[in-house]
Write a structure and sequence with these properties.
By secondary structure, this protein is mainly alpha-helical. It has eight helices and two strands, in the order ααααββαααα. The longest helix is centred in the N-terminal third of the chain and has 44 residues.
């Protein structure tokens, strides 16, 4: 119990340190994406697009797309750079002498990376919502949407859209034998986080492997990443083909969905152990 409490305390401290180290830059990036969406949305809300100069619209859309893409890409780049710089460069001499285990380092960085990946996705969605929602609201206040010959208000349309989304989800999950909404939610949550952490740990494992060489560490990391993704895709493709050959269509969906989730979780554990082994046993800062 004492060991668990100590581990929790260490991870909590590492999480706090990781968050402080990166929140300012990432908040600015993702805040800029939201601001650009709000700027365009309210601009279109209070003026007609036809009244705006074409050059201004083109420049805005170019800047909007550039900033949204930059926010998404740089969120990933900064978090990957954080792992490499903090553990495998000169900064690593200080980081790795702290009374913190390799497991705590990896966990804290992975969780913060995951949190910012989610926040980035939410900021992009919020940006699109700010850009499009005011225009949609203005349209629906002046018109009703004829959808399948039925007049709909904006709230009716949102209700209809939600019903369609949940209907598709129910049909999809019924193919793998899940009909309970709680089970659907649990399966979706586990699948989402397994995929999220798998992508993060794949980056971390590639960087950790790249650190084993004395020179060209980044090149080795890139090649390691390409190699691992290629091998995983090949084996994944072979597995899917074999499932298709030996199963009925319904069984294919069930088997592929469940097996993909299990394999993803197993790969997360394997990648985590690779990072942990290299950090604790084969650390090379030269």
């Amino acid at each position: 119990m004492i060991l668990i409490s100590g581990r929790y305390s260490n991870v909590k401290k590492c999480l706090k340190h990781e968050w402080k180290a990166c929140w300012k830059n990432l908040t600015l990036l993702n805040g800029a994406a939201i601001f650009m969406g709000a700027l365009g949305g309210f601009g279109f809300l209070f003026s007609q697009i036809s009244e705006l100069p074409d050059l201004l619209i083109v420049l805005y859309l170019f800047a909007y797309v550039l900033i949204v893409i930059a926010a998404s890409v740089m969120t990933q780049v900064l978090m990957i750079q954080r792992y490499y710089k903090n553990l495998f460069t000169d900064e690593g001499y200080l980081t790795n002498v702290l009374p913190v285990s390799a497991t705590d380092h990896i966990l804290s960085k992975m969780l913060v990376f995951g949190a910012w990946s989610i926040l980035n996705a939410l900021s992009v969605l919020a940006s699109f919502a700010f850009l499009l929602l005011p225009y949609a609201i203005r349209y629906f206040t002046a018109n009703t949407l004829l959808f399948y010959n039925k007049a709909m208000t904006f709230s009716d349309f949102l209700s209809y859209l939600w019903a369609q989304i949940t209907g598709v989800a129910d049909a999809a999950f019924s193919l793998i034998g899940i009909t309970n909404h709680i089970s659907m939610a649990l399966f979706s949550i586990v699948g989402f986080f397994a995929s999220l952490f798998f992508g993060i740990l794949l980056f971390y494992a590639a960087i950790s492997i790249g650190s084993l060489v004395s020179s060209h560490k980044i090149l080795t990391a890139v090649l390691s990443y390409i190699g691992m993704t290629t091998v995983i895709q090949i084996f994944g493709g072979i597995s899917i083909v074999r499932v298709f050959q030996d199963s009925t269509p319904t069984a294919v969906v069930t088997t592929s969905s469940v097996s993909t989730l299990i394999i993803t979780v197993v790969l997360c554990v394997v990648l985590f152990l690779i990072c942990r082994y290299i950090l604790s046993r084969r650390l090379n800062l030269s």
